[in-house]
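ok trying this again, last paste got cut off
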Amino acid sequence: MTNNELPLAASDAALAEAEAGHVTAPVAYDAVILAGFGGPEGQGDVIPFLRNVTRGRGIPDERLEEVAHHYRHFGGVSPINEQNRQLQAALQAEADRRGLGLPIYWGNRNWDPYLPQALQQAFDDGHRTILGLATSAYSSFSSCRQYREDFAKALDATGLWGQVRVDKVAQFFDAPGFVAPFVTGVADALRELLAAGTDLTATRVLFATHSIPTADAERSGPRDVDWGEGGAYAAQHLAVSEVIMQRALATLREEGLVGAAGADVPEVAWQLVYQSRSGPPTQPWLEPDINDAIIEHAAAGATAIVMVPVGFVSDHMEVMWDLDTEAMETCEEHGVTGVRVPTPGVDPVYVSGLVDLIEERLRGTPAAARVRETTLGPWYDVCRPGCCENVRAGFQPAISGLQP
């Protein structure tokens, strides 16, 4: 299948061009596929899984072992598959509660159950109009376009091009259901520190997300917009982090913990930081690294660090190792209290919010009627031309996007 032969992309694109990328015609989807990253579920799975993740890059197993020890530390089991099983079940329960009549399937990019299997099962069960929901909230190649390409590859692998329509839920970084659990988590963390006698002016809130190569970041989002340093990827994180911070402090103010309503709120400094970088040291990635930021803030007099995994939807390996292990160790080594905020996981508010996104597409909700928490949203249902290009491989066939 070439990039000029994308019959399914056109189904959304024709509708989207008139309204800046938002599909406002109801679509009778008859199934949803939850698309995940995947992860190993035993020691014997670790290296094969990492080979899948790095396929096409020629990385030898010796180098993969440098990452494998993160998984081996936890018995070779990534929590991500079990979390997606729970999310699938929670989404199904909520969809059933609303009477949507939509079965929720689940398939992964890098490990069993694979996305082509999920698509084939949906087809075998009689479904022909499918909505994809990726477990990733932000725009970049690996967090958005690659999932759109994954669906296209699944259509190729199953031979179902032209027989099944597959669209995708837009990036949901500022959807209320995704934002609210983080607001609760930050407020809880600050409340906990206050109860322990911590001075909030000596507290730093670090919003953490996965680092990506700067070249990928620069290509994230539509190319005809100047997103500033870090592209749309950084802009989305900054916008939603600011909202979370403001609302968490407003919550404490309403409770009388940081001053009466209308009074000045103590300055609680926050920063967007990055984690989990890989690749050669010569390749620029988004910075600062969370551990470097902790060291810097500790040296400047900070006594407490609140880590907010705002770039992640669940407590998978990057959260358990890079934050709960490495970053916490950095806090201890430099004499600061570390508190980590939960990810949304299967929080009922988050699950309900994801089903809201599904219903928006079922109903063809106009963009102006979709509630979002930043001025950047609602994000595009159909990605703009040139959005989130893969620096290494260029543009490949992908669903739910205007070409290329």
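PB: full thing came through this time. Residues 74 and 148 are 31 Å apart (CA to CA).
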